[in-house]
Amino acid sequence: MSDLIEGYLGKTVEGKKSRLPAKLDFIQSFTGGFLALFMWAHMLLVASILVSKDFMYTVTKLLEGSFIFEGGNPLLVSLVAAVIFVIFIVHAALGMRKLPGNFKQFQVMKAHAKSMGHDDTKLWFTQAFTGFAMFFLGSVHIYVILTHSDKIGPMASSDRVWSEYMWPLYILLLLAVEFHGTIGLYRLCVKWGWFDGENPKATRKALKKVKWALTVFFLVLGFASLAAYMKIGMENAKNGTVGERYQPTAKVIEFNITNKSVGRIA
Ligand code: HEM
């Protein structure tokens, strides 16, 4: 069936009714939900440094598949990073559809949001801003990890954070990702009516509280982890040990031998 559609530059054009926008919306929701949950796991794994260097070393080895390959294989991490990168790009490309195309559109949206005085509409601006920032910040990080997956570990990661100046990028990325991820999950719940129950209004209020609690939790965890990597990186720079790999303690070597993961040192 054909339809009259407001086209580019305001010209009216003939077009077909299509289910494509709904399908794209679904893919955007799915990739967003997946990335947000991936980030929770990611932040918990990165935070392993808060337990001990040995623990972060062991986590790194397990993620390199040390229970399958002797000594672990960082290619496995590169492979996962490549898949995440593709999902990240698809999600960002679909998100672009929602950004205003010119200043006039932006003004209209801003005036509209202001006149409604509706908090959830204001959240849209935070999503657009943090999403835009992540285009650049997230791409740099994922590419660096993808191409240097053999340099992850208590010493190597700390050197990257401090001596290779990743910490300013991580501060901005951490802020962007923690707001974007939890707001995104909240919006998914509202959009698709998950947990609506008897009283959707009350649910929305409760969801907002959970959203804030999660943002604060992951920001505190993230900044504490970042501080730990920066501290180790600074010590390495002071002691002239930048570039040296971590030597696990005897206890960890024993654990790794039983799990087939001796070999490369992280
Ligand atoms: C498979 C993909 C990924 C891997 C293997 C990975 C790995 C890592 C590692 C090892 C660190 C510790 C610092 C370092 O070694 O440089 C780190 C930090 C970080 N990553 Fe990722 N990352 C991945 C994807 C992402 C994505 C998609 C994002 C968000 C767009 C992200 C955001 C961050 C942030 C914000 C930090 C700093 C966190 C902190 O220090 O508290 N990462 N990542």
* Secondary structure: helix percent: 55-70%
Radius of gyration: 22 Å
Shape: elongated
- Name of the CATH first level: Mainly Alpha
Which distinct ligands sit in these coordinates?
Answer: protoporphyrin IX containing FE
Q: Which class do the helix and strand fractions yield?
A: mainly alpha
Low-confidence stretches: none
Beta fraction of the residues?
Answer: under 5%
Shape-level CATH architecture: Up-down Bundle
Count up the helices: 9
GO biological process, one term: tricarboxylic acid cycle
Subcellular location: Cell inner membrane; Membrane
Function: The fumarate reductase enzyme complex is required for fumarate respiration. This subunit anchors the complex in the membrane and binds a diheme cytochrome b.
Protein name: Fumarate reductase cytochrome b subunit
Task: Please write out the topology.
Elements: E1 2-6, E2 12-16, H1 20-46, H2 53-63, H3 75-96, H4 103-116, H5 119-147, H6 156-162, H7 167-192, H8 200-239, H9 250-258
Question: Could you characterize the architecture of this molecule?
Answer:
This protein is mostly helical and 266 residues long. The protein has a single domain, classed as 3 helical TM bundles of succinate and fumarate reductases (Up-down Bundle), CATH 1.20.1300. Helices cover 70% and strands 4% of the residues. The chain has helices at 20-46, 53-63, 75-96, 103-116, 119-147, 156-162, 167-192, 200-239, 250-258, and strands at 2-6, 12-16. It has a two-stranded antiparallel sheet. A hairpin with a 5-residue loop joins strand 1 (2-6) and strand 2 (12-16). It is elongated, with a radius of gyration of 22 Å. The mean pLDDT is 91. The structure holds protoporphyrin IX containing FE. Residues 42, 46, 77, 80-81, 84, 88, 134, 138, 141-142, 145, 152, 157, 160-161, 166, 170, 173-174, 177, 222, 225-226, 229 line the site of protoporphyrin IX containing FE (HEM).
